[in-house]
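So, read this over?
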Amino acid sequence: IEGRKAQLKEAYYSTHRPEASSRTSTLDSETYFHDSCIAGDIYPPGMKKIRRLSAGSKLSTYYYIGSELRVCADCNKKSTSRPVLRDIIDRRTGEPKVLKIISKSRLPPGPEGLVNWRMLCEKLLNFEPCSNIMRVEQVWESDTSFYVVTEKLVGGELFEFLLKEKVIPEDICKYIMKQIFQAVELLHNRNMLHRDIKPENIMFRNPTNSALPVPERYELVLIDFDTCKMIDTPNADTIEIVNGKRRLVGTYGYLAPEILRGEEYTTASDMWSIGIVLYILMTGVPPVSMDKMYDAKSSHAVLTAAETNGIDFNMPPLIEFPLARDLCRRLLSFDRHKRIGNATDALAHPWLVGLTSIFDRRLKLKNYSMGDSQDRHQGPSDNNSGGYIRNLFGRGTAKSGNHNSGASAAKSDGARKLPL
C-alpha cells in the first residue's frame, strides 16, 4: 500500500514536459511551465513544478482546508498581504499538511521578483531529502497568490523549548547547533541564503517530551523560506535595491551589523544570526538589547553600542564552556571578514567535532533526559530568564502558534519581523 501511495504521489506531482509547440505559460493551464525557471529550457524527468490554479479550480479539490493558524500578534491586524497559514489534509493520502498562502504583493516589485520567486519555489520543491530542512511538497499559483504546501511538524519551536527548559545538557546544545548548521550548510551549498534564522524558525519534528531516542526526540527542522535569496542568479542583488536603498529582510534582533549598514547579504550574515541563537541557547539571554531594536535606525544604534562596549562572552554559564564560548565569539564578530563565514567551517569547530561518538555512547546506555547529564548549563530559569522573556520578547503576552503545531509563545517589537 505504501509503495502504491508513493507511486500515486509521484504521478500526481510530476508531469511530462510537452513538446515545444504545445507548451504554454497562459494562466488557464493547470501546470505552469516557466522558461526562466530552468537553465537550458529543459525540465529534468520527474522534476516537481509549480502547479497552476486555473480559472474555476480550487485548492479544496485537492485538500481539506482547516482552520487558520495564528503565528504572531500582528496576525490580529488582519493585514491583506501578510502570509496566511492553515492546517490542511491531503484528500488522496489523508496526511496532515500545512498550507502557507503568500500574496504576490509581498514579493520584490517587477517581473524579475516574480521570476526569482518561482525559481526559488522550484528549487525547494526539488531539494534532496534532508531531515533538517522542512519539506516543501507542492506549490500552487493563482493570479494573486502562491500556495505553498509543506510537511506538518508537531514538536514546537526552539523558541518555546528555550522558555520551557530550565536545564539543558551541553550535549543537547551541541546537537541542536549541529543540526542548525547542517540545515544552513545545505542551503548555502545550493546557493541560497535563509536571511531569517531565529528560534521561531527552527522547529522540533517530534514532541521533546516523548519517549523517543535522543536523535528523534531533538530532531530539528529549519522552516520559513519566504525570505530566502538565491545568489546564483544574475539579478539576485539588483532586485533587492528599491528606490536606491537595499531592502531589509529578516528580524531586527538577528540581523548582522553589515546588513544594517546597507551591505549585501552573504553566508556570513546567516552565521551572525546563528551566533545569536547559540548565545541565547547557552545563556538564556540575548547578547544585545533586542528590546530596543524596533526599526533599522534603533537596531543599528544598538549594534554600534555593542561593538563599542563589546559583547559579554563571560556571561555564565557560557564562560564555563570554553569551546562553546570560542565558537560563539567567532560567530558574533562584527567584522564579517573575521567571522566564521559558512556552516561547513562552523561544523569543523572543536566544540562540535566528536559529538556523534559521544551521543552514540550515551544512547546505548539509556534514553537521555534533561536531568541525565552532569555536563549541563542553566537554561532560561525563573530567575535568569525573567529578564530574557521580558527584554527579548517584549512586555506583551500575545498568543502565537507556530505554523505547524499551533503552540504559543510571546513575541515582541524587539524581535519584530521585517516585511518580505
About this structure: The first helix runs from residue 2 to 13. The chain has two domains: 10-151, 158-415. The longest strand covers residues 96-103. Confidence is low (pLDDT under 50) at residues 4-42, 363-374, 380-414.
